[in-house]
Specification:
Double Stranded RNA Binding Domain, 21 strands, EC 2.5.1.26, single chain, flavoprotein, Vanillyl-alcohol Oxidase, Chain A, domain 3, Oxid_FAD_bind_N, globular, Vanillyl_alc_oxidase_C-sub2, 626 residues, alpha+beta, Uridine Diphospho-n-acetylenolpyruvylglucosamine Reductase, domain 3
Length: 626
């Protein structure tokens, strides 16, 4: 490590917002007043708002007071809550002493010296593009949110971080930057919200060329909106919550809500083929995209037609979707939008066991009557979710006792086996009423019953709070991560049981006595479903805890694939799942991908190392140097 030499280069240089060009033939009927220059929740210095060593906002966290776990963060329903039930659950499940945390990580005082490329820097200075070589700007963009990333960050183990961070403000500046990088053989890593859990934005540790992060966060304008066609064009750096606020102000919505919705970006959704909690009503990202503007070293890839469907050879939108920053960068996206629904109603159901819940989910999918969101959680997650409540007065405790008595005595359900379904209905009043009635009727066939809207709303919103738990766990040597898959219906229940059993077995083999293995079924389709696994363990007996976690997860992934599951449903491949990419797409698919990448990026400057292990591109890089 060496002390930072160049603290801040050209950081005050920022291009002014450009007016909308309505002379383009696709925009002649658009109202220029619908142009929006959006203030992003991600400022240039995002460390002023977000944690540098973990998930989310700086002012939002789980913490311990008087030996009880609490939560603060006024954006969330648990703000200023003391959580004694969760504290007791954590003590019992993971053998944690809340009063004995590890110290909060401190910022490094020195950073790896940046690798230089003087010719690139000289031309960049004249390009009117915002940039910085300050150590902290570089450090916080060397990683995503994978467990490996956060653990290495907290323990200051990154040996290689980006050498420069740039903030282009629009498509033209991206073109200019990519052209310069291609000319001078500088690696470009697109960076949006930084929420990836696949290792896709982790800085390549063996890269010897200069690495330039292309931070898209200042590309966040709505360029145009057509209310007649229900389409809109946004720059790719806009964050999910900002995009929704803009559309909601026009009584519209995109309806795409991944768990990372607060911080992830439109461009990131496209690059990873993202899915959201309300995909049943609004679709996955591939259903919402009309067209994409994509800058590659060889030029701009863009379909010159925004018709609702086109039969014109292979769809190049699907070259971009799922490319994970390996061939270029998304700059603008035309999306479908919908009128804001007048009714939003939550609900929840209980089932006697997980198998009954899976059968319910399958029947709902078979009849194609899914509400906007329907998610099945197993007993482990249900119990944990119930503990994330503040303490109640005696009357509240009595009511809860009566509810439990009703479930166990009247309904005859074993609380150690029951599972829950959270529901979200959106639409017109009569449509929501009809849909809810159908769902409740199906639930009865599988011994399910309603437990009210408050539980459903709470379960849906808590999704955004749960992400903060991992940072708490790391203070007590608890490593935690989620991973997901998609699977045909006839193997869904078996896969859930077998993978959890395999995680338990692998922990026992390694004398790991305190762990959590749970799952939920989150998205449903005609032919199958998405399954999310949550795995955590206390690692006091592990010499290399991250490596231990990665080995166990890899074993679980092999179990998933052997049971007919996919490599990923929506997290993407990244670096973590790249060992399985080849067997998924076959050798012919690998060669097709390589040929496409070489055509778009002949020097391999978009060298993120995703999809295929980095060694697969060694020959391509060598050719570029000749």
């Amino acid at each position: 490590m060496m002390a930072e030499e160049e603290k801040n280069l050209n950081l005050s240089n920022s291009a002014a917002p450009r007016p909308l060009d309505v002379t383009n033939s696709d925009m002649t009927s658009l109202d220029q007043r619908l142009f929006r220059d959006v203030k992003s929740v991600l400022p240039v210095k995002r460390q002023e708002v977000l944690k540098w060593f973990g998930w989310g906002y700086k002012d939002s966290e789980f913490y311990v007071k008087d030996d009880v776990i609490c939560f603060r963060g006024d954006r969330y329903p648990l703000d200023d809550c003391s959580l004694p039930y969760f504290t007791d659950w954590v003590k019992k499940k993971l053998d944690i002493k809340p009063s004995d945390p590890q110290p909060t990580p401190t910022l490094p005082q020195t950073f790896p010296k940046p690798i230089g490329n003087s010719q690139f820097l000289e031309e960049l200075k004249t390009a009117n593009i915002l940039y910085s070589q300050e150590g902290l700007d570089r450090l916080i963009r060397c990683h995503g949110q994978a467990l490996h990333d956060i653990y290495y960050l907290r323990h200051n183990k990154f040996k290689r971080i980006p050498d420069i961070v740039t903030w282009p403000c629009n498509h033209d500046e991206v073109k200019k930057l990519v052209t310069l990088a291609h000319k001078h053989n500088v690696v470009v890593l697109p960076y949006g919200g930084g929420t990836s859990v696949s290792g896709s934005i982790t800085c390549p540790q063996d890269e010897i060329r200069m690495i330039c992060v292309l931070d898209t966060s200042q590309m966040n304008r709505m360029l145009w909106l057509s209310k007649e066609n229900l389409t809109a064009c946004f720059e790719a750096g806009i964050v999910g919550q900002d995009l929704e606020k803009v559309l909601n102000s026009e009584d519209l919505t995109l309806g795409h809500e991944p768990d990372s919705y607060e911080f992830s970006t439109l461009g990131g959704w496209v690059a990873t083929r993202a899915s959201g909690m309300k995909k049943n009503t609004y679709g996955n990202i591939e259903d919402l995209v009309v067209s994409v503007k994509f800058v590659a070293p060889s030029g701009v890839l863009e379909r010159q037609c925004n018709a609702p469907r086109i039969s014109c050879g292979p769809d190049f939108n699907h070259i971009v979707m799922g490319s994970e920053g390996t061939m270029g960068v998304v700059t603008e996206v035309v999306i479908k939008v919908r009128p804001l629904p007048p009714i939003k109603r939550y609900g929840s159901l209980l089932f006697p066991d997980f198998e009954s819940g899976v059968k319910f989910m399958r029947e709902v999918a078979r009849r194609r009557c899914q509400p906007a969101s329907v998610r099945l959680i197993d007993n482990e997650q249900f119990i944990m979710g119930q503990t994330l409540k503040p303490a109640k007065a005696w009357l509240g405790e009595f009511v809860d006792y009566c509810k439990k008595a009703y479930v166990t005595t009247v309904k005859g359900i074993d609380v150690t086996r029951l599972c829950a379904v959270t529901l979200l209905f959106e639409g017109e009043q009569k449509d929501v009423d009809r849909q809810e009635a159908v769902i409740l009727d199906i639930a009865k066939k599988f011994k399910g019953f309603s437990v009210g809207d408050k539980n459903g709303q709470r379960g849906y919103i808590l999704t955004f709070v749960i992400a903060y738990i991992r940072d708490l766990g790391l203070q007590y040597d608890v490593l935690a991560e989620s991973f997901e898959t998609s699977v045909p219906w006839d193997r869904c229940y078996t896969l859930c049981c077998n993978v959890k059993r395999r995680l338990e077995t692998e922990c026992q083999k390694r004398n790991i006595n305190y762990f959590l293995a749970s799952c939920r079924v989150t998205q449903t389709y005609d032919a199958g479903a998405c399954v999310y696994f949550y795995f955590a363990f206390r690692c006091t007996n592990c010499s290399n805890p991250v490596e231990t976690y990665e080995i166990i997860e890899a074993i679980a992934r092999n179990e998933i694939l052997s049971l007919g599951g996919s490599i990923s449903h929506h997290h993407g491949v990244g670096k973590i799942r790249s060992p399985w990419y080849g067997t998924t797409v076959t050798d012919t698919g690998i060669e097709l991908y390589k040929a496409t990448k070489h055509q778009l990026d002949p020097k391999n400057i978009f060298a993120a190392g995703n999809l295929l292990p980095e060694k697969s591109f060694n020959l391509m890089t060598a050719r570029a140097k000749l």
